[in-house]
Amino acid sequence: MTDATRTQRLGAYAVVIVGERILLTRISPVGYPAGSWTLPGGGVDHGESPHDAVVRELHEETGLQAFSSRLVDVHDVHVVAEGRDDRWEDYHGVHLLYAVEVDPTVEPHVVDVGGTTDVARWVAVADVGAAVSPVLPMVEHALAHADQFVAGV
Questions:
Q1: How far apart (Å, rounded) are the C-alpha atoms in residues 43 and 12?
Q2: Containing structural domain, residue 46
Q3: Mode of pairing for the β-strands spanning 88-101 and 5-15
Q4: Distance between alpha carbon 117 and the CA centroid of its chain, in Å?
Q5: 103 φ, ψ to 5°?
Q6: Tens of pLDDT along 35-89?
Q7: Best CA proximity match to 43, nearest among 123, 128, 116
Q8: Domain tally, the chain
Q9: Rounded to two decimals, what is the model's pTM?
Q10: CATH of the domain at 30
Q11: Using one digit for the tens of pLDDT, what is the confidence trace for 10-47?
């Protein structure tokens, strides 16, 4: 292995669970890792509050408006491996996970077309990891702690 590029990224993500469904997005071919399912969200811009970032990202990736959002958990991933463009990368992603309420009758759709998200949809929790795969570890983490993301908790 050659010297790995070190990258640390702070992201804010919406965990939207309604009944037996969770709102997920798929990473487009211009994103990484392409084809993986994840939570709506993404990088916090320099000078942007994480709370504003999760609301912005939710709208860009799903077209949905957040009625409420509250910080619930922090997840992180640290990987040293071949990453983007087959280069070695020492990547540390810090993910702020927000419980977010939306109107569940509104069908999600990608607003920021041509970006790193190509599909947004409601997915039955039972299908995550089976019919809907691969999923990123933060999705598995959110589902393992789903009770913390339910409205009113």
A1: 6
A2: 5-149
A3: parallel
A4: 10
A5: -80, 110
A6: 999 999 999 999 999 999 999 999 999 999 999 999 999 999 999 988 767 788 8
A7: 116
A8: 1
A9: 0.93
A10: 3.90.79.10
A11: 999 999 999 999 999 999 999 989 999 999 999 999 99
